[in-house]
Amino acid sequence: MASSSSTYRRYPKQPKQNLDLRYASTPQCSCKVKAHIRVVESEWKASKGQLYYCCPTQTCNFFRWCKPQRATWSPIGTPVVFSPVCGGDSFGGNQNFGSADDGEEVEEIISSVSRASRVGVFNREDVNGCYLHMSWMICAILCTMLVFILFLK
């Protein structure tokens, strides 16, 4: 019988990319309880993939759209800042993107990624039947790349 030996190589560990979505202080609902952050998951809603605040006990019907204040997606933690935090659909706030055209271009890319996530382009089903929403990760990656491009002009 021939002997077999198995060898394996140890590869150096690569830094893991962490997704960090920071939100402004979470609002309280009418019940005076911290609101929960949820994701619209319905296939039939145009807002699929968007985040919102709601009452954790579902007694006061509290509802408000929610957007991350800061999103980072890179091993070095380069931030992408969204403003305003909740409500509204504007992008940028106090950020200086070089010109109005650049800010509009960034907003257009973010809204197209958001639309794609609502129609299921960036969603996939895992082994347990749960949907993994990747729209914020994709958006953070695109925004980080755009910020680098715009600031390195």
From TrEMBL:
Pfam families assigned to the protein according to its UniProt record, in alphabetical order: Zn_ribbon_GRF (PF06839)
Domain GRF-type intervals: 27-67
GO-annotated molecular function: zinc ion binding
Domain of life: Eukaryota
Protein name: GRF-type domain-containing protein
Species of origin: Buddleja alternifolia
Annotated InterPro entries: Znf_GRF
TM ranges: 131-152
Keywords, comma-separated and alphabetical: Membrane, Metal-binding, Transmembrane, Transmembrane helix, Zinc, Zinc-finger
